[in-house]
């Protein structure tokens, strides 16, 4: 547990920045984003989960960034970001609502809490943060505004007890690495393995290509291998992602060896309007997924959005204002453990206000 104590101490230092360093030249950038949607959800099996219309939070948050120049070319940086589940009136992630202090490798009442250094040799941070594999592989197609954004991937967004390094740009090439304590899969003794991630990216002109590995280990020796591409052509943005499981799991189960996730995304901006479409095939987690979106940027701080989301098998759809724990509870007697909702469709419209 000593390694976790060191990480926790470092993050504690980040949280203490506002009270210990205000008079020492630290720069702060406070921010927030309120995001709420009204949704009409129609599961395919209404005998398992009834259709409903309700309000759901779409990942509201509040936080601050901080930086302090240590020397020329070396800056101390810190970030604290809390989730605001406005629909449930709680400080929690709207998906990961588990009451445990550590659920799925992240604290449910903190989105980001990290501290580190940034300089000519790259960026090194410790704490809970967005992971390098997500940033390089999943993010290029994670461009929607509703709660249903980001589910069509095998990886995780953020993890606590993590040390991450990002290299500087080297003529278009860059790399990322992360070691995350006990955030992998369980081994034969029931103990969680450490999680390792490695990514490499190459940017040329308006195009970026990336490759990544997310090693969860465990008794199934599970790895996620990924490729991504993104390209901007004026007002048109194109993104693509391919992921594949390499594991000792056989058969029709989540994480089975050879299972793949493929995504194609396109977004077009015309003045204040942005039109979005994504087609995805994520085996054993949604299967065929269709996602359409429209954003209207009313002002620099205010956005209106509307989306249609459809999944063939259960992935994102859950109970009204529910999350992961409710999702696991619905039809939990089924062999895949995901519940027997068997997918469905969602119409959602909402508002985002940044401050």
UniProtKB/TrEMBL annotation:
Keywords: Cell outer membrane, Ion transport, Membrane, Porin, Signal, Transmembrane, Transmembrane beta strand, Transport
Name of the molecule in the record: Outer membrane protein (Porin)
Classification via CDD domains: gram_neg_porins
Subcellular location: Cell outer membrane
Quaternary context: Homotrimer.
UniProt-listed PANTHER family: MAJOR OUTER MEMBRANE PROTEIN P.IA, PROTEIN YDDL-RELATED
Lineage: Bacteria, Pseudomonadati, Pseudomonadota, Gammaproteobacteria, Chromatiales
GO biological process per UniProt: monoatomic ion transport
Source taxon at top rank: Bacteria
Principal localisation: membrane
Span of the signal peptide: 1-23
One GO CC term on file: cell outer membrane
Bilayer disposition of the protein: Multi-pass membrane protein
Sequence ranges assigned to domain Porin in this UniProt record: 11-312
InterPro entries for this protein: Gram-neg_bact_OMP, Gram_neg_porin_domain, Porin_dom_sf
An MF annotation (GO) of this entry: porin activity
Gene source species: Ectothiorhodospira mobilis
């Amino acid at each position: 547990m000593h390694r976790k104590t060191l990480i926790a101490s470092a993050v504690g230092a980040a949280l203490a920045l506002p009270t210990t360093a205000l008079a020492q030249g630290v720069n702060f950038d406070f921010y927030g984003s309120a995001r709420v949607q009204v949704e009409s959800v129609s599961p395919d099996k209404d005998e398992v989960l009834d259709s409903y219309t309700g309000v759901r939070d779409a990942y509201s948050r509040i936080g601050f960034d901080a930086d302090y120049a240590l020397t020329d070319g070396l800056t101390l940086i810190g970030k604290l970001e809390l989730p605001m589940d406005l629909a449930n009136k709680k400080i929690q992630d709207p998906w990961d609502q588990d009451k445990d202090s550590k659920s799925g490798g992240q604290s449910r009442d903190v989105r980001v809490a990290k501290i580190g250094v940034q300089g000519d040799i790259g960026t090194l941070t410790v704490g809970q943060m967005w992971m390098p594999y997500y940033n390089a592989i999943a993010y290029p197609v994670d461009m929607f505004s509703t709660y249903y954004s980001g589910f069509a991937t095998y990886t995780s967004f953020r993890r606590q007890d993590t040390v991450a390094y990002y290299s500087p740009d080297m003529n278009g090439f860059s790399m990322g690495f992360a070691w995350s304590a006990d955030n992998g899969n369980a081994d034969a003794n029931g103990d969680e393995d450490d999680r390792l991630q490695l990514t490499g990216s190459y940017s040329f002109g308006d195009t970026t290509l990336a490759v990544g590995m997310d090693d969860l280990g465990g008794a199934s020796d599970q790895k996620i291998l990924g490729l991504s591409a993104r390209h901007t052509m004026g007002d048109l943005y194109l993104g693509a992602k391919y992921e594949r499981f390499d594991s000792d799991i056989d058969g029709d189960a989540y994480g089975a060896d050879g299972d793949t996730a493929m995504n194609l995304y396109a977004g077009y901006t015309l003045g204040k309007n942005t039109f979005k479409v994504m087609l995805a095939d994520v085996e054993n987690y949604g299967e065929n997924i269709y996602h359409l979106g429209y954003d209207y940027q009313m002002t620099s701080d205010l956005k209106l959005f509307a989306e249609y989301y459809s999944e063939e098998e259960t992935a994102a759809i859950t109970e009204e204002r529910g999350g992961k724990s409710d999702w696991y509870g619905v039809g939990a007697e089924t062999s895949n453990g995901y519940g027997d909702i068997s997918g469905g469709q969602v119409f959602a419209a909402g508002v985002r206000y940044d401050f």
